[in-house]
Every structure is written in C-alpha cells, then in structure tokens.
C-alpha cells in the first residue's frame, strides 16, 4: 500500500496515520490521503464525524501519496501552518486555516487569515465514504466500464419456466403419437379396401371351379368330346288340324295317337295324311261330325 505525505510548516513529512483514498496505478499514480475511518471529499478535503479533536472543526486538508508533494492531487493548502485543520467561514464564504495554539492544538475558533476558495461543506462531493486501513479501489479512467450481470432468476421463476418447458415437450410428444396412430389406422384401412372383392368383380371359388371341370369331363366321356358344348336339336311340330269338339259331351276326347315312323326320333310328332281327321273313341253315342272351322 502506498504511503502518504503532507506538508507541515513548509516541510514534507511522512504521515503514517493517513491512508490512501483508493489504489494507485499507472493511470492514477497519486491519490489523496485521509485518516482511517474518515471521509474523503473533493478538492483535497477530509471530514471526520466519529471522533473529536480539541479545537477542531471536523475538516482538515488531505495529504497525498506523492513523496515530493508536487502532484495535482497534492493540495497546496495551509502548508505553512503547524496543523492541517480548516474551517468554513460562512460570512466570508471561504475556507480558513485554523492554525495551532501554544499547546499545538487546533485553533479553529480563532482561525488565521490564510484561506482558499472551494465549495461549502454541503456542496462538496464525497470522494469515498470512509477510509480503511487497507487500500480502497477507485474507478480507473482508462479501463472500460464493467457491465453488471443481470440478476438471476428466482427459484419460483425458474421452476415455472421448467414446468412450462416440460408441458410443451409433453404436448409435442402427444401430438406426434396421435398423428402416428392416425396414419397407421389410415394405412390399415387402405390395405383392407385393397383386399376387398366388390360385386362387379368376377371371382370363382376354386372348389366350385374344380367341380365344374369334373362334371364337364364326365359328360365328355359318356357322350363324346362335344357333347357338353353342342346344343340339343329342337324339333318343330308339323301343322296339325284343329281340335274337334264333340257335341253333347263336356269331356274332351283324348289326344290322337302318336305314330312312329321309320327313321324318326322317339318323341317326334308325325303328320297324318291329308284330308284325314283324327279319330276319337268315346263311350257315348256317336255324334255327327263336327264342322271344321
């Protein structure tokens, strides 16, 4: 820690009770000095209010860390006096050096005419609240201002943010599962529709197809290769005479006998000779022949 120096009666002396009002560095090599636990004020003035000095006013001229006492922070005030105590004269609106009595105590009640002009005590800016036994840092003019980090989130706020993030993640997972199941059901439905046989589509059960082939084979073996496919011949009935009505009898006569001729197929009707009417047998008396219509 830097040592402090002051001028007493024109001589530079080491003042061991004084402490620097901040650290020294290459940019600020010299700083003012005040007693420990006193307040450093602007314009090289120190203030004390936790102690009392006989004949003092509570203010005194600050020392400095320059051994030669030539720096601008070393105020050339009351340097010819035996003490560094000062007091503010409100009538003159200026500071005055208190000097010392015969016992070398402060004599601020009968201050000297040696004085200087700086703002009143109420207008002096505080350079540093109190001076400690250790060095007190001061702002470095060349250093870039440090940005204070933003205050951290409270525990409740952090918990709320975590819960919100968890709910969002669960919602996204649920939506993903929903769309996956929906897509799977749609795929299964399309596959079922693709395997369905509609009424307009021709489909033959294999077991019935085999029966049909067996039946066709049996017919072919009995009646020939073309028996199954060849259509049966149709016979036309020859023109027959109109039916005969028998008078006096409500019963119809039996159908005429079917004559089989040579070379005819069974069941084929034969034609009667022209002009010959069919004969009918009946148990009733013969009636006159009916008139042909």
From TrEMBL:
Bilayer topology term: Single-pass membrane protein
Comp. bias regions, Polar residues: 194-224
Subcellular location(s) of the protein: Membrane
PANTHER family named in the record: PAIRED IMMUNOGLOBULIN-LIKE TYPE 2 RECEPTOR (PTHR15549)
Record's compositionally biased regions (Low complexity): 276-293
Lineage: Eukaryota, Fungi, Dikarya, Ascomycota, Pezizomycotina
Annotated region (Disordered), positions in chain: 134-155, 191-293
InterPro entries recorded: Immunoregulatory_rcpt-like
Name of the protein: Mid2 domain-containing protein
């Amino acid at each position: 820690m830097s040592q402090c120096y002051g001028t007493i009666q024109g001589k530079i002396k080491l003042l061991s009770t004084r402490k620097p009002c901040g650290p020294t560095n290459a940019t600020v090599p010299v700083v003012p000095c005040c007693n420990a636990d006193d307040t450093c004020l602007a314009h090289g003035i120190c203030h004390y209010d936790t102690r009392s000095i006989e004949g003092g006013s509570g203010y005194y001229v600050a020392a400095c860390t320059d051994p030669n006492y030539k720096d601008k922070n070393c105020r050339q005030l009351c340097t010819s006096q035996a003490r560094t105590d000062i007091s503010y004269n409100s009538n003159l609106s200026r500071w005055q050096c208190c000097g010392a009595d015969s016992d070398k105590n402060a004599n601020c009640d009968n201050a000297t005419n040696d004085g200087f002009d700086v703002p009143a005590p109420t207008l002096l800016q505080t350079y540093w609240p109190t001076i400690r036994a250790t060095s007190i840092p001061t702002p470095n003019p060349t250093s870039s201002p440090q940005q204070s980090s933003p205050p951290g989130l409270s525990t409740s706020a952090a918990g709320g943010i975590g819960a919100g993030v968890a709910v969002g993640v669960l919602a996204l997972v649920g939506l993903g599962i929903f769309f996956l199941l929906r897509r799977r059901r749609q795929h299964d439905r399309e596959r079922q529709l693709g395997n369905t046989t509609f009424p307009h589509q021709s489909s033959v059960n294999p077991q019935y197809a085999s029966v049909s082939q067996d039946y066709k084979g049996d017919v072919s073996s009995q009646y020939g290769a073309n028996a199954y496919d060849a259509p049966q011949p149709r016979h036309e009935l020859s023109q027959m005479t109109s039916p005969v009505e028998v008078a006096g009898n409500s019963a119809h006569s039996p159908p005429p006998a079917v004559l089989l001729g040579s070379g005819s197929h069974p069941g084929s009707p034969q034609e009667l000779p022209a002009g010959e009417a069919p004969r009918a047998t009946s148990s009733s008396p013969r009636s006159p022949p009916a008139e042909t219509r």
